[in-house]
From TrEMBL:
It comes from the Eukaryota. The keyword Transmembrane helix applies. The chain crosses the membrane at residues 6-29. This is ADP-ribose pyrophosphatase, mitochondrial. InterPro entries: NUDIX_hydrolase-like_dom_sf (IPR015797), NUDIX_hydrolase_dom (IPR000086), NUDT9 (IPR039989).
Length: 323
């Protein structure tokens, strides 16, 4: 559920940690680096929404971070990010960590910490003075912001797709590219009004496959209401989820909630109905944290939350669809 998402200064980093930070950053932004662009420009493109102000749900202004200073490897002794953790996160809801230094709280970073997954999909991240560092770079805010976990906050995003068809059941192709048009299920988030891929946080001890199914049913089928029609739709979705699927993306998410010490990571998985028969039998209904839900044509004009448009672009390339 998206609601689960609503969820210090340190000594100089060692040479080993610095190398790890640079390596982690490279692993992410090389996916997004345009041909001929500079490393600083690439880093800024891959780490743009995590630098926006004001911070979501607040009037907090981030410390401006120029492109050449995003990487932790860049010397910036005067860097002084704003310290912000949302008031609700500080009330210690079940999905959130306590403050670092709290009695009985000794998180094991870069490891499976009990049922809480604190390993990053990016690899090993730096921990400086007992505080984890965003593997991509500086954000202008320290603390946790709206996120519950110190370090990586793991999510899962199900991409449910079908081919667009005309009234006779034939695939619709784009006149410009000559490629078939893919459609995916999108939700409009209640918290910010932006369109997004359904998805949410992986609960402690939960399998990612279970999260993908649960989140889609809650947000796109309104399964929490438990109506008879939606129960039948859930059965069809379960059948779709039991078939072959395609991993689209696995790693860091350029999310406006990210901070220097807490960040979003996800696994975006595509479940595709080649004939459209299964998905024609489900009734979309917005639920949980989704205000609206609908089928959206995949194209280069898609404007989506965080870097979800990037996931859709990768999906179109892998499926040979119009973009």
């Amino acid at each position: 559920m998206l609601s689960r998402v609503l969820t210090r200064g340190a000594a100089a980093v060692s040479i080993t940690a610095a190398i790890a930070a640079v390596g982690s950053s490279f692993l992410y932004y090389r996916w997004f680096r345009p041909s001929g662009s500079s490393p600083a420009g690439s880093m800024a493109a891959a780490h743009a929404k995590a630098l926006t102000s004001p911070y979501p749900g607040s009037q907090v202004q981030r410390r401006p971070v120029p492109p050449e200073k995003i990487s932790w490897a860049a010397d910036w002794p005067e860097y002084d990010p704003v310290d912000y953790t949302a008031p609700y996160v500080l009330t210690n809801p079940p999905w959130a960590d306590p403050l670092l230094g709290s009695e009985g709280f000794s998180p094991q970073f870069n490891a499976l910490d009990g049922a809480v997954q604190r390993e990053s999909l990016q690899g090993t991240y730096s921990v400086v003075g007992g505080v984890p560092r965003n593997p991509v770079g500086r954000t202008g805010v320290k603390g946790r912001g709206l996120l519950g976990r110190w370090g990586p906050n793991h999510a899962a995003d199900p991409l449910i797709t079908r081919w667009k068809q005309d009234s006779d059941g034939r695939r619709v192709t784009d006149k410009g590219t000559g490629k078939p048009i893919l459609q995916f299920v999108a939700i409009q988030r209640k918290d910010c009004g932006q369109w997004a891929i359904p998805g949410g946080m992986v609960d402690p001890g939960e399998l990612v496959s279970a999260t993908l199914h649960r989140e889609f049913c809650e947000e796109a089928l309104n399964s929490l209401e438990g109506s008879g029609d939606q129960s039948e739709s859930e059965k069809k979705i379960q059948e779709l989820f039991s078939q072959e699927h395609l991993l689209i993306y696995r790693g860091y998410v350029d999310d406006p909630r990210n901070t220097d010490n807490s960040w979003m990571e996800t696994q975006a998985v595509n479940y595709h109905d080649e004939t459209g028969h299964l998905l024609s039998q489900i009734r979309l209904e917005a639920g949980d944290d989704a205000g609206k839900v609908q089928w959206v044509d995949v194209s280069g004009d898609c404007s989506l939350y965080a870097n979800h448009a990037r996931f859709i672009h990768i999906l179109a390339q892998k499926r040979g669809a119009h973009w």
